[in-house]
């Protein structure tokens, strides 16, 4: 299951400087989405916002293919990771929100009002987060963890998103290598500041982060992927020059010393770290988690409501799984126990070898090809949605999510990249892989992101600069359901079981995330409960629970978003009767580009009204 979209799961949400998915704004359906912003003042303001946000987040400019021409200088920069940079970023959001408020929303068309509300919601949530002195912008309380911080983000970004076509691109890569060292030191300073305020990651998060750092630090500078990626790609493009020596010198003389300082800072925290997993122990911890849930779900649902939703929906999904299991001859034990036995069954496992990993990725590509013929029955958009499937880079796999997506560049220079964590192939029984692919690729993240890339001239560019977790992940989970409803599993009952297990897994997340951060569950309690509920391997669940500890609230967006999209679909179906067309509903959702759930409800209401007309 995905981490944050990382979709580009890294840009993920409110801050253009944070890491991972997409926000977006407009639309009440395809016809309306194809209109330009009608109000010239709003259009000009959004264009100005885009330029400001790209300057704050050069990585986003590169990720989206917007770092050329007048913005070419951005390709040699990274975001300001300093404490002062965070203050300036929150202030910039507050200033943009003030300028947006100067526009009379009541005078806007419904389409423009949707855009207005979406951008306002993103800014409001970020501004609220500025009330907390610690952490990152997307509800990550710790500046550095096993999945947050420059070490886990920058090397992968440089390798997979910083393109090398010209000498200028290669030189910009070197500039970013130097900026990587600066970012590490900026984070190290913030680690000390946060610790002085009583904000220290749990001991197990520190241990994993230090393991990742040791992985990179234990290599010779010239042998690192940081150097090899530049050298190999420059050579492949015929870029003249010796890039190996300057790149290795930067890694040896700047990156490694900065990494040593960060390692020392985290080691100094270890005697102060507790084993308590939840953010309830942090300053204003309850308030912080309430905000994190608003960010993660774009609703006002409280922790207790979300916890109970997970319990109730989990029980309903168990009933579906029980019927399939009995039909396959598995009748003894709880659903979780039976799934646990299947998880360990060697018939469904790939060898934990290079050959086994290659076979697993080949199977993923096969599942991707299998869903494409169904897309004409699910959408009228006709998107190409190219996807490349890769293993998570070895140097970050210990703390990375089990699967995630980087969206395609808007200029078509890079396809969507679907990452699967193959540190242990035992985490991926074959019957789980189809549903994962539906989520990460098509009809899930890659399809939704393809609309932004292939039709980017139909929606404001700001639609690709931010992301709403509950929309992005809710759509991807709904996409898993669409694949089942379309008939992908008609001859594959175990694949369908894998789909329900994935759905069950997301319901369990509601219980565990709120259990950790609101009900004060311990890490081991959360792992035990989730293993029992889902039957997933202990290794996979341990990675998941640690992720929830580092990014509270994010894991709640999947099932909350999915539940709301399904509710809106049934509302539309009931209202339209014979006029309801699944393709039109799906396209009405996708062509928003992404929206908070409250705004999505208004979009679907207008879609219903338009379909009735």
Describe the protein.
This protein is mainly alpha-helical and 613 residues long. It starts with 29 loop residues before the first helix and ends with a helix. It has a three-stranded mixed sheet with strand order 1-3-2. The protein is built from 23 helices and three strands. The relative contact order is 0.15. 58% of the residues lie in helices and 2% in strands.
Low-confidence stretches: 1-35
Shape: globular
Portion in helices = 55-70%
Following the backbone from N to C, one meets helices and strands in this order, namely HHHHHHHHHHHHHHEEEHHHHHHHHH
> Can you count the helices?
23
Strand order in space, largest sheet: 1-3-2
Number of strands: 3
C-alpha Rg (nearest Å): 23 Å
Mean pLDDT: 91
Spatial separation of the terminal alpha carbons: 40 Å
**Class computed from helices, strands and strand pairing:** mainly alpha
- Oligomeric assembly: single chain
Strand content: under 5%
Q: Largest sheet, if any?
A: 3 strands, mixed
Quick structural overview:
This protein has 23 helices and 3 strands. By secondary structure, the chain is mostly helical.
Keywords, please?
613 residues, mainly alpha, three-stranded mixed sheet, 23 helices, 3 strands, 58% helix, globular, disordered N terminus
């Amino acid at each position: 299951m995905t981490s944050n979209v990382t979709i580009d799961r890294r840009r993920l949400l409110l801050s253009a400087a944070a890491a991972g998915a997409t926000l977006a704004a407009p639309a009440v359906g395809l016809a309306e989405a194809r209109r330009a912003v009608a109000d010239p003042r709003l259009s000009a303001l959004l264009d100005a916002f885009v330029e400001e946000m790209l300057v704050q987040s050069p990585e986003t400019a590169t990720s989206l293919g917007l770092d050329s021409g007048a913005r070419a200088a951005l390709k040699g920069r990274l975001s300001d990771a300093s404490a002062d940079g965070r203050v300036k970023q929150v202030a910039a959001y507050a200033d943009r929100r003030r300028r947006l408020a100067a526009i009379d929303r009541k005078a806007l068309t419904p389409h423009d009002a949707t855009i207005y509300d979406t951008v306002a919601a993103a800014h409001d949530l970020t501004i609220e987060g500025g009330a907390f002195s610690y952490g990152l912008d997307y509800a990550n309380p710790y500046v550095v963890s096993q999945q947050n911080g420059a070490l886990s983000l920058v090397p992968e970004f440089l390798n997979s998103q910083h393109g090398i076509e010209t000498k200028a691109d290669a030189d910009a890569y070197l500039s970013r290598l130097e900026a990587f060292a600066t970012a590490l030191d900026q984070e190290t300073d913030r680690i000390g500041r946060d610790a002085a305020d009583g904000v220290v990651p749990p001991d197990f998060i520190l241990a994993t982060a230090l393991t990742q750092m040791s992985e990179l630090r234990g290599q010779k500078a010239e042998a690192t992927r940081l150097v090899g990626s530049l050298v190999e790609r420059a050579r492949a493009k015929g870029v003249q020059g010796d890039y190996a020596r300057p790149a290795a010198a930067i890694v040896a003389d700047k990156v490694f010393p900065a990494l040593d300082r960060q390692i020392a800072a985290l080691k100094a925290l270890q005697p102060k770290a507790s084993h308590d997993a939840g953010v309830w122990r942090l300053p204003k911890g309850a308030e912080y988690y309430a905000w994190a849930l608003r960010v993660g779900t774009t609703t006002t649902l409280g922790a207790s409501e979300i916890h109970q939703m997970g319990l109730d929906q989990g029980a309903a999904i168990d009933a579906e799984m029980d019927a399939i299991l009995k039909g396959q001859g598995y009748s003894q034990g709880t659903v979780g126990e039976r799934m646990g036995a299947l998880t360990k069954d060697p018939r469904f496992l790939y060898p934990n070898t290079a050959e086994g990993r290659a076979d697993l990725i080949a199977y993923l590509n096969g599942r991707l090809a299998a869903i494409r013929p169904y897309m004409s029955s699910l959408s009228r958009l006709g998107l190409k949605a190219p996807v490349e499937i890769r293993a998570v880079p070895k140097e970050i796999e210990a703390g990375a999510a089990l699967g995630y997506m980087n969206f395609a560049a808007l200029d078509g220079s890079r396809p969507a990249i679907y990452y699967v964590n193959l540190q242990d192939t035992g985490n991926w029984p074959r019957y789980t892989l189809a549903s994962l692919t539906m989520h990460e690729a098509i009809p899930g993240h890659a399809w939704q992101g393809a609309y932004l890339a292939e039709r980017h001239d139909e929606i404001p560019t700001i639609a690709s600069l931010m992301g709403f977790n509950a929309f992005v992940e809710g759509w991807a989970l709904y996409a898993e359901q669409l694949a089942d409803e379309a008939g992908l599993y008609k001859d594959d009952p175990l694949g369908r079981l894998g789909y329900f297990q994935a759905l069950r897994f997301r319901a369990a997340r509601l219980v565990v995330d709120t259990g950790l951060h609101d009900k004060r569950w311990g890490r081991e309690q959360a792992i035990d409960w989730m293993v029992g509920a889902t039957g997933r391997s202990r290794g996979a669940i341990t990675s998941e629970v640690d992720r929830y500890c580092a990014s509270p609230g994010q894991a709640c967006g999947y099932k909350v978003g999915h539940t709301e999209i399904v509710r809106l679909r049934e509302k539309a179906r009931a209202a339209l009767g014979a006029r309801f067309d699944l393709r039109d509903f799906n396209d009405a959702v996708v062509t928003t580009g992404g929206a908070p759930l409250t705004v999505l409800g208004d979009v679907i209401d207008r879609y219903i009204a338009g379909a009735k007309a």
